[in-house]
């Protein structure tokens, strides 16, 4: 019989072998089954920081095996457009349900993509179809691989189990704030691809979705273009899952021109802010920081009339060039699994609304593009990023030297006034909010904290509207899902949305088969 034990305290610096010994003693010296269910850090008292565990155990051997999912016989062709978290997890679930999906991806496979990204980082040569935004794994490939989410969804567990099954560290199944890290995620992606191909699925890399053929208001085939040769192809399908990312601006335009109903969305813009990792850890944990992983934080300020918040915090990470269009500078954050870099960074964002950028469908998208072009110009038009120390930003002066915090942005930085890049409301909001945040996290508002701009790809600027049946309200058999379609944000919620879409398609086809 499996029993559960909650609120087990293990001191900071002690490993899970201590936990195992404690639970084994509780079980009477014999432990045939042991599973960690939850692990979180209690740092409320810096003099007594400890890990909190919940575990399941039994003196007898037990099994966690789940029965396989029911599969559809003679499953029809489904195309998944995009190989980010939503697309890949959708494809995995389709395979588990008996399908052999075709995955259409404008970028390259992860190893080739990494070469293209490294080339951009070092030589500033941008491939507009294969970069930090586009390619196998989507934008999440070059990130912290953060898996925590605010969305309560029964499929979140499925997402974690998929990643763990294909090579992510097992701890993601129980950590309060799980992350994979960019280095580990690349291994997971290759394992997922091998599984899908083993189920008869296909990956078509370097193939951009450029249109579709329909009969009335029903999708019949997907049209794609080879981004290298320019040759077009067509794939007849029973359904297509639209899992493009939030940066697929040309795809958004094409879909609108093709008659799909879409809506504009509000979003946030900002900068990446960098501090020394050891400073953040000491502020959070005190002297115990030497016994613990690099600290994270999550801050919100309402000191200004506009809410300012941190997002996608990367402990021990780097700021990376994330452009996907010529003539624009975009930044993002990335960490490897170890999170052992010199700096920590996060996005510092201010919420904008259509009152700031216009009511038109693509006004927000063009607003994003405009500030990216300003950042490109401010950085010297070479994909260097404009940067400024917070102390100088607050006093409206251009920085001329770094403090202790040195930039990690791989393509190089250029001192420039970010007030000429960001919207005025963001500049004033940051001047007010950062000192307010510094009152809660000591050192956050240090004069040498480094701002690098711009963080403009927080979320999709549009929503491709779908109905209760998860299909486009304009085109039957087209299933918008994930972050680019405006229905999720981040790896886990996007992946869960993809799984739910796969389940809907399976149940629809199953019911059709039962009625014939």
TrEMBL record:
One Pfam family linked to the record: FAD-depend_C
Highest taxon of source: Bacteria
Alphabetized Gene3D superfamilies for the sequence: FAD/NAD(P)-binding domain
Coiled-coil zones: none
Domain (FAD-dependent protein C-terminal) ranges: 266-457
SUPFAM superfamilies on file: FAD/NAD(P)-binding domain (SSF51905)
PANTHER family: FAD/NAD(P)-BINDING OXIDOREDUCTASE (PTHR42842), FAD_NAD(P)-BINDING OXIDOREDUCTASE FAMILY PROTEIN (PTHR42842:SF3)
Protein name (record): NAD(P)-binding protein
Species of provenance: Candidatus Coproplasma stercoripullorum
Species lineage: Bacteria, Bacillati, Bacillota, Clostridia, Eubacteriales
